Amino acid sequence: MRIQSTDHGFASDIAGWCESTGNRLADLSTDGGRYIAVVEKGSACPAVLHSGNAKKKTIVVFSGDFDKAMASFIIANGAASMGSEVTLFFTFWGLNILRRPENVPVQKNLIEKMFGWMMPRGATKVKLSKMNMGGMGTWMMQGIMKKKNVLSLAELIEKAKASGVKLVACTMTMDLMGIHKEELIDGIEEGGVAMYLNRAEAAGVNLFI
């Protein structure tokens, strides 16, 4: 079967889908912004049965709240330091954590521009889920963290990348919210639900934050 797609996450999605369903990805190429995959039908059962590897962890980062983002990256960095292979899948409001703090000139329609104006831009702009108090609560929390030598959210993100943690942006959410890859920080992969589920099936721990 020959499949064509313009979705940036298609390449990783189709590979994960084939592995999970027992089919074979015979070829994958690009042509003028299109991804072209050739899939050969396999057995009815997946080629590889995932039993859950204790050294693999996946986390869905759905929330864009400061405290929940901190928890996500503290867990991810802790797991990576213990030798685990970690994947963080950012979807919906969680994508705002990965946005660059500076404005990036990209072509957008009115709705996409409105989303961009209303949503926080990057790790330094996200707020507490409780007791934010117009930003005062977040400011106080960041001050306490600095006093107690706790890494900032931005520093935790950089540490995670340096430790090999995979940061994956959901391409469907990017499309819905009008977020372009150029607006995300460096080192971010793109993928969809098939890619995430494939990694989740192989993991011993799956979290939704």
Descriptive account of the structure:
The chain is built from seven helices and eight strands. It folds into two domains: 1-43, no CATH class; 51-208, Hypothetical Protein Ychn, Chain: A (3-Layer(aba) Sandwich). The protein has helices at 10-21, 66-81, 110-118, 136-147, 153-162, 171-177, 193-201; strands spanning 2-5, 24-31, 34-40, 53-61, 85-90, 166-170, 189-191, 203-208. The strands form two sheets. The chain has a five-stranded parallel β-sheet with strand order 7-6-5-4-8, with helices on both faces. The protein has a three-stranded antiparallel β-sheet with strand order 1-3-2, covered by helices on one side. It has 209 residues and is of the alpha/beta class.
